[in-house]
Amino acid sequence: VYVGLFLVGPVKKSMRSQCFSSTLIGVEAHLVGVEVVISSGLPGLTVVGLPDTAVTEAGARVRSALKLTGVNLPPRRMVVNLSPADLRKSGAGFDLALALGLLEALGEIPAGCLAHTLVVGELSLGGEVRRVRGVVSYLALAASTTALRRIVVPFEQVAGLPRWDGVDVVGVSTLEQAIQYCRGEWIPVAAGVVPTQGPSRGTDLAEVRGQDLAKLALEIAAAGGHHLAMVGPPGCGKSLLASCLPGLLPPLTDAEEREVAVISSVCEEEQLLLQRPFRSPGSVISPSALLGSFRPGEVTRAHRGVLFLDEFPEFRRDALESLRLVLEEGQVRVSRARFQTTYPAHFTLICAMNPCPCGMASVPGEVCQCSSRQVARYRGKLSGPLLDRLDLLVGLHRVPLSELHDRPVSESSQCVAQRVGQAREIQMLRGCLNRDLSGDPLFSYLNWSRADQKFALEVGDSTRLSMRAFQKWLRVARTLADLEGTDGVSKQHLLVARSLRVTLGSGEQAA
Ligand SMILES: [Zn+2]
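YS: structure for the whole thing
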């Protein structure tokens, strides 16, 4: 009791300030109150409220930055309290808020000038304001918090930020500039410049010669959100085709663009991504890098875009197993010691594989070196629960050069994207993408004739389709009808849909 009384001491001359900063958990920014109290007592600067090492070390950086900016901290007791107390605070983004909070408490900047303001920025020892990770998440927080009207961020991160209503962005490059801003001596140039990113949306479909069936599969995948597998020998253009998909999808809505920008900023991508992502991780990727841990994984970086897994059977089994749940839920739940978060992960999956381990099975003029057992094991990787999520499974073959030469140039991505957009609009009237249709809703939306229904059931029975595989077939047929803008699914749609589902031996039976 005695020690406590001594340390608290007389609080008559205490000075205080209150401002706001934020800490990141996953891709979400959480509001943190920064309260500074300066009182007589043992001189020193203490940060309390569950700070991590980087936050604790803020004291040294802030002291040095202030000194070089011309402010010497008085030999008094300075306590910085970060609230809420039970939220773990991490990163160096508190530096600027800490410095400004101290200055306000000392009366160096006007009292109350930081009300309604979120402050994030790391300080160098010399007083420069350095970039922070996840700046778009902080912007999202400022925009969604009614008590906040502006956000102070590192100047170098202002350019390229997506537009956000209801919040002013102030970019400062030094602590001195931030002080001048608070004193009203410096007015920032209008921020929130709308960035324009070029049409670098992957490969254009017109650049790919031949492979008409695969192109149709891509169009259907784009229109109905269906996940897709491509099976074909090396060099038949699977990667090239996959990279066309982002360009076939409709442009991001404002809300989607913000989601993508948030993830991009948390992943510290050099340039903020504001279009549909295309991610193609290598097969040696670990499950945590694929699914995410303390930082978002590839499935989240592909959010609202495309995840392409080339050489699919080479991926680790446990990684693929977990992928199934992600496809089902559209999100990833991460749970580590003291770290729980949920990452968004809505994407279209494209898997590519060779027909066998050596890749030469069913290639004219080539001899496959694999045993039937090897082939079965290889194809088996695509079987089971993950295969259930893939509505489209197309077989590709190498197009002979002579044939390539004669081919007419096919439709551009722009043409196809227009149809895709219309097909998506039709689906939105029903409430969901065709990928997510099953059971009674699926059957009720087919609007097919009795004859076509009979035809489908007969084919289903004669080829021993499971109910799951049968529904996949119908889903794809529904998307074909939507691409045409017709109300009912016809026999023609069913026949085309059937050709977009190759059999993979034992693997296919599992579906
Ligand atoms: Zn082989």
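YS: worth flagging: Residues 356-358, 360-361, 368-370 surround zinc ion (CB under 6 Å).
IM: good catch. Also Residues 1-12, 505-511 have pLDDT under 50 and may be disordered.
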